[in-house]
Write a structure and sequence with these properties.
There is one protein chain. By secondary structure, the protein is of the alpha/beta class. The protein has one domain (23-282): P-loop containing nucleotide triphosphate hydrolases (Rossmann fold, 3-Layer(aba) Sandwich). The chain contains 13 helices and eight strands. It has helices spanning 2-11, 37-50, 67-70, 79-83, 89-92, 117-126, 146-154, 166-182, 198-216, 230-237, 242-245, 250-264, 273-282; strands at residues 24-30, 55-59, 93-97, 100-103, 135-142, 157-162, 188-195, 220-227. Strands 3-4-2-5-1-6-7-8 form an eight-stranded mixed sheet, sandwiched between helices. The longest helix has 19 residues, at 198-216. The structure holds adenosine-5'-triphosphate (ATP) and magnesium ion (MG). Residues 37-38, 61, 66, 139 line the site of magnesium ion.
Length: 285
């Protein structure tokens, strides 16, 4: 066991203070459902991969997994089979494009984690297979559940997606409040999706950021906005991601901006990386 642990430690490069090294983990969450998390996660991932980064998107929305549907692929096995110990991680990593993989989620599987110690070790051992990634993007699903809060806490960055709808704004604030009472050291970033124009997005972001600063004493980084754009719905109906189907659309160009900002985020020095992420996730009750 000692040898193996050592090997694992070596395999998981940590941040060494001189920039990005190892796999950077981003959890994408929202208070309200249907605000565009899955759309954004897939398209941000694809754009990052087109810029030469190795990316895996993990569909961790165990209520309504649908990342694979957006990409028009039908996986035989999902994370569910891995957690159950029936399949290896390599069986559920689907290569979609150069530098871009997904791990499909399992719908209707909200009570996920009750692994035996043996299965947990087996799973964590397999994580080496994800270690070649520059980014792991986790689509965490909507709402405040322990699953989601744990994934936010264990990641290097959390992205909160909202739309300008008052209900979405209120729910975004709700999840920010929940995560801050859970862990104050979380790195929070805000994306405003489905905005009609720049100033609407700016107003929405300022409201959330100001309220969070005033009442929770927490800083949120504004990552940018995405236009409400019929091209998004069209790409989903075609099961062809927007950044392939219509990269120069209004929404596509906004995504490009956001991805450029992601590449400029000063990396979090949080120790632990992948192994820490999944161990936290798997050992919660
Ligand atoms: N910028 C946009 N412009 C227009 N429509 C959009 C935009 N972003 C997302 N949509 C539409 O919103 C709907 C919800 O998107 P998506 O499934 O990505 O949201 P979600 O937050 O992942 O939802 P859930 O909480 O159910 O997982 C989709 O029909 C999508 O086409
Ligand atoms: Mg979704």
């Amino acid at each position: 066991m000692g040898d193996q642990a050592e090997k694992l430690r070596e395999a998981f490069q940590e941040y060494n203070g001189s920039g990005r090294k190892g796999t950077y983990i981003i959890t994408v969450a929202s208070g309200k459902g249907g605000v565009g998390k899955s759309t954004l996660t897939v398209n941000m991932g694809l754009l990052l991969s087109r810029k030469g980064k190795k990316v895996t998107v993990v569909d961790a929305d165990f209520g309504l997994a649908n990342v694979n549907v957006m990409l028009g692929v039908l996986p035989k096995y999902t994370l569910y089979h891995v957690f159950k110990g029936e399949k290896n991680l390599s069986d559920v990593i689907l290569n979609i494009d150069l530098n871009f993989n997904i791990i499909a989620g399992a719908s209707g599987f909200t009570h996920l984690v009750n692994l035996s110690e043996k299965d947990r070790i087996k799973f964590v051992d397999q994580l080496e297979q994800l270690n070649h990634n520059d980014f792991l993007l986790i689509d965490a699903g909507a709402g405040i559940s322990k699953n989601v809060l744990t994934m936010m806490q264990a990641a290097h960055e959390s992205f909160i997606v909202t739309t300008p709808e008052p209900t979405a704004i209120a729910d975004a604030y709700g999840i920010i409040k929940a995560i801050i009472s859970y862990d104050r050291d979380i790195r929070l970033n805000l994306i405003v999706n489905k905005a009609r124009d720049f100033s609407e997005a700016r107003n929405v972001s300022q409201r959330i950021i100001n309220i969070a600063e005033q009442f929770l004493n927490v800083h949120i980084n504004y990552l940018g906005f995405i236009f409400e754009d019929a091209a998004v719905g069209k790409s989903i109906r075609l099961q062809e991601p927007l950044v392939y189907h219509d990269p120069k659309s209004k929404a596509g160009l906004c995504l490009e901006n956001i991805v450029n900002r992601i590449l400029n985020i000063e990396p979090d020095r949080k120790q632990g990386g992948l192994r820490n992420f999944f161990q936290k996730f798997l050992s919660m009750n």
